[in-house]
């Protein structure tokens, strides 16, 4: 459930703005990714080096979480930082809808299918609102608990795009779609939908992916008065005998195209490290193919609800916030 505030929205916004303006703006280069691979220390070293290079000289605040089921390689960066989710929360809404149907021992209704598909395929916001309201916050919260999330809170006042989350929690939600022992049985259906996201929304974690893999993804792109553009991309990659998950979240981006390029530099480094010698199927998204328009996940009338403790957060120390495969 959303946190109950004991001060007015105006007072909270004023206090948050003052505290945020007093804090230094984090940059991508200020943090070093931490990568581990129990059976391949050379891979961990390379991933760390390549990710550091990918973020060098990039402004903005960036978090990432990676887990490869085959090598058990993992990487974390800025893992404790919470972000407004924008449209990536639609994966949670989908999982909660699927979980409810399974708990009730029935298939999805025609109405549910007619809303889930456009919500994922074309990021339809009306469909997301209908499902968010229909499933309800208790079921959404229960899904977060089942997935093992620890720092995600549902959007207040019905603004689902203001759900706050971390890269690590997004990796856990993706894990619900890849783990055969997951609480979800409809994993193949969910992955199929995420594999059919329309072409102009397939930027981000797909950059640098090799031939022979399939991307199942969801993106979020939202500008607000505080922290500029939120540019997020999460995805599962399957095929050629492997599965891995990647979540890259960012804000403080000066433009959508700038944030997309930062995310894609991270993705390219990950794909290159995990798939040595494989031909690349997709490069960076051309700037003229990036819309520059908000995903509309938060309406302009929504109040600013800055919370510096949420937005700044810990520095992503891996010992404090371990990745849970």
Instruction: List the uncertain runs.
Output: 1-25, 311-325
Overall average residue pLDDT = 87
Cα gyration radius (Å):
18 Å
The number of helical segments is: 10
Topology order in helix (H) and strand (E) letters: HEHEEEHHHHEHHEEEHH
Global geometry: globular
CATH architecture tag of the domain at 25-85 and 165-311: 3-Layer(aba) Sandwich
- Tally of extended strands? 8
What is the percentage of strand-forming residues? Answer: 15-25%
Fraction in helix: 25-40%
Could you describe the largest sheet, including whether it forms a barrel?
A: 6 strands, antiparallel
Structural class of the secondary elements? alpha+beta
Tell me, what is the CATH class of the domain at 25-85 and 165-311?
Answer: Alpha Beta
What gap, in angstroms, lies between the N and C termini?
A: 25 Å
- The CATH topology of the domain at 25-85 and 165-311 corresponds to Beta-lactamase
Please give the order of strands in the largest beta sheet.
1-3-2-8-7-6
């Amino acid at each position: 459930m959303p946190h109950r505030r004991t001060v007015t929205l105006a007072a909270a916004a004023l206090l948050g703005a003052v505290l945020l303006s007093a804090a230094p703006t984090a940059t991508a280069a200020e943090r070093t990714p931490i990568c581990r691979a129990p059976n391949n220390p050379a891979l961990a070293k390379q991933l760390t080096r390549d990710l550091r290079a990918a973020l060098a000289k990039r402004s903005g605040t960036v978090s990432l979480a990676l887990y490869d089921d085959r090598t058990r390689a993992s990487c974390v960066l800025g893992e404790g930082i919470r972000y407004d989710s924008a449209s990536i929360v639609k994966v949670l809404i989908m999982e909660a809808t699927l979980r409810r149907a399974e708990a009730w021992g029935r298939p999805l209704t025609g109405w549910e299918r007619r809303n889930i598909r456009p919500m994922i395929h074309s990021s339809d916001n009306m469909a997301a609102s209908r499902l968010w309201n229909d499933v309800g916050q208790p079921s959404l919260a229960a899904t977060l608990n089942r997935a093992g999330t620890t720092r995600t809170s549902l959007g207040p006042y019905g603004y689902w795009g203001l759900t706050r989350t971390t890269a690590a929690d997004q990796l856990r939600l993706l894990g619900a779609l890849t783990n055969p022992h997951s609480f979800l049985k409809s994993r193949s259906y969910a992955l199929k939908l995420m594999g059919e996201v329309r072409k102009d929304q397939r930027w981000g974690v797909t950059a640098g992916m090799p031939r022979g893999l399939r991307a199942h993804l969801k993106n979020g792109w939202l500008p607000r008065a505080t922290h500029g553009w939120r540019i997020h991309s999460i995805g599962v990659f399957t095929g050629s005998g492997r599965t891995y998950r990647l979540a890259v979240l960012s804000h403080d981006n000066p433009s959508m195209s700038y944030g997309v390029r930062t995310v894609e530099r991270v993705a390219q480094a990950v794909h290159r490290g995990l798939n040595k010698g494989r031909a690349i199927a997709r490069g960076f998204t051309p700037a003229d193919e990036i819309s520059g328009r908000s995903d509309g996940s938060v309406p302009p009338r929504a109040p600013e609800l800055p919370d510096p403790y949420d937005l700044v957060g810990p520095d992503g120390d891996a010992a404090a916030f371990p990745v849970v495969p």
